[in-house]
Design a protein that fits this description.
By secondary structure, this protein is an alpha+beta fold. Helix content is 27%, strand content 28%. A hairpin with a 2-residue loop joins strand 38 and strand 39. Helix 8 runs antiparallel to helix 9, helix 10 packs antiparallel against helix 11 and helix 10 crosses helix 12. The longest helix has 21 residues. The chain is globular and about 80 Å long. It starts with a strand and ends with a strand. 1-deoxynojirimycin binds next to helix 8.
Length: 810
Amino acid sequence: MRFGYFDDKNREYVITTPKTPYPWINYLGSENFFALVSHRAGGYCFYRDARLRRLMRYRYNNVPTDMGGRYFYINDGGDVWNPSFAPTKAALDSFECRHGLGYTRITGERKGVRASLLMFVPPGHTAEVHELRIKNTTAGPKNLKVFSFIEWCLWNAYDDMTNYQRNFSTGEVEIERGGSTIYHKTEYRERRDHYAFYNVNAEVAGFDTDRETFFGLYNDWSAPDVALKGASSKSVASGWSPIASHGLDVDLAPGEEKTFVFTLGYVEVPRADKWEKPGIINKKPAHALIEKFSTTEQVAAAMKGLSDHWSRLLSNYSVESTDEKLNRMVNIWNPYQCMVTFNMSRSASYFETGIGRGMGFRDSNQDLLGFVHLVPERARERIIDIASTQFPDGSAYHQYQPLTKRGNNDVGSGFNDDPLWLIFGVAAYIRETGDYGILDEQVPFDNDPKTKTSLFEHLKRSFNYTLNNLGPHGLPLIGRADWNDCLNLNCFSETPDESFQTTGNRTGRTAESVFIAGMFVGVAPDYAFLAEKLGFTDEAKKARGESAKMNDTILKHGWDGEWFLRAYDFFGNKVGSKENKESQIFIEPQGFCVMAGVGVEGGQAKKALDSVKERLDTKYGIVLNNTPYSEYHVELGEISSYPPGYKENAGIFCHNNPWVIIAETMIGRGDRAFDYWKKIAPAYLEEQSEVHRLEPYVYAQMIAGKDAVRHGEAKNSWLTGTAAWNFVAISQYLLGVRPDFDGLRVHPCMGGEVGKFTVTRKCRGAEYRINVKNSGKGAAPKLTVDGKAITGDLVPYAKPGATVIVDCEV
Ligand code: BGC
Ligand code: NOJ
């Protein structure tokens, strides 16, 4: 069952009912000002940091779900409704929500009135613009009373939802232009040098800024007094909960349409200029921002700018094939999701509150794989930010704050895979750009300027961190956990409320990770290549030697007969082995070891992947482990805390399915790889939306596994490494076009379902048009470059400005 459709021409997903199984959302903004917006206009916006600079209040775990947003109440002769359906839930004659790239347009129609609300953040500005068009579609006149409504958050979203004893007394507003502009200035009198405003480009009949007055005592969102009465109360908030509502009289002749532009903005004022006069805020910066978006022409121009921006970004990789679902994932939605992960990391979604998690060291490096071709200069900056939080011994804080760019211990440190991800990120950046200069960039440890050294030195510490932390079998120690945050082998937690990620009740040097071993072997060739490039021949040689040694160690101590082992626990017992009672096999080492090439020659790779097929594959994707843990194991940690089939305990982690997909292409099995991909790629799941339940245009982190009560149901959409890894899998391995250090590698491995296709790739200033005739056999490709046959699969990089035609038969 579907709840909408893709409109590829306009790069939109069109939701046709307000009753999707969960709020289906979109993101606005791509620089400093961001917003989340659901198909019912719910959500909130913030400046840079979803916790510390939040403009709109949002309620979590609320009933009904998704309360708080930009709401427009229309009173049509006593009949009160919202074009976004919420909050009144008055039935609509038609409803449509178009989520596009950086904007959302919601249109609702009832009893001869059509209202259409466009929301976006204009590039370069710190505001949400709301353009509201209201049309009378009847043959008689309409006299409407229209009320805008937003509720202010008192800036710090965590404090806002907990500290009522203070917050109910601090709220302050100012009102200007008869109510057309409403200012939110809570705490401006003291240490804040910023305020927010909500403006409409029209004269108003009234306004409200006090929530209780607007709703009425004990009323809820669905029937606010003011909207029912059809008249604003001109309330001035003092403490409690400040809001902003404009009251508009909208008289429409038959067929007439009127348009209003609202600006919901954020400004900062230099401390010395804070006040216009005592107690009155300096409104100049607000006026300047309002001026920029006070006409529909300005709105149209800004929307055009936004659309051009996306066309530019998306033109860096595109595919034309006969499979429209494939096209829309690769050309539109997957890169779009990658950019959202770049902006948000794991902070603000409808599964992440925006008050908990900052930027992950591991997460950010992986996200980079998905956005580096879109915004290479920003990827460069991100790499420097991440590396600056690294510790001198190569280890890392698990996360850092976007506002301060400093590492913090909120989710601890000592995740022993973290350091190696930095090499992954840097290698991907250099492959894309050829900017080896970044390796000489001077970067501090733990943000201490006195410790500055070259970025290459950081990579060296990363690489050697693994070598300096090997366990009894010569495999890397796992530390608190590796990629699987929930495999906590030194945690031993028996106390509720203790964090699995920050608690370490045992310190031992026994628990080892086969996954990290695979990563090490996978990243070693890149590290050695970069070392060599800088003239560190000995280091390169050492890296190659250690990698060969680790490869052997994996085959000796990390091989279980039919698949790769997962780990050794604190006591030296095997995890993920046929000897175990439960969870005999895990996905991560199968994917990563094969990606690294371990066992490809000796046949273990094929065996491991066949075991994945046999034991982990389901109709909705590949589960993380099988069988699930049926009870809590203190020696394993959080993984065994989840009921079977959910999250890391045998859920389908869409993040590591692409590792297996890539691994399958490495042994030439494109058909199987493509099949796996289609099971989790959201566009292919659209028809099963009643089962999947989340947005069919973006990946979710997890789909409930075969042992779960609700097999097939997705959770945690948008902010997940799934976006980047699936983009890598489909674009670089299935379609097979990937930048390498010395050229563009063209090596499709898709299976036979998609025959001919063309990939257009811009890289290092040149454009490559790659026409693929795909037999699906997965053999070595035959390439011609501008008509001349070449040997191998590496197309040398052309000069900036060149257009290169590549023909590929495979
Ligand atoms: C989740 C993991 C997540 C971790 C972050 C756990 O509860 O299951 O997916 O990475 O929290 O701290
Ligand atoms: C989500 C985290 O953000 C990611 O870093 C981790 O690898 C996965 N969960 C698996 O635990």
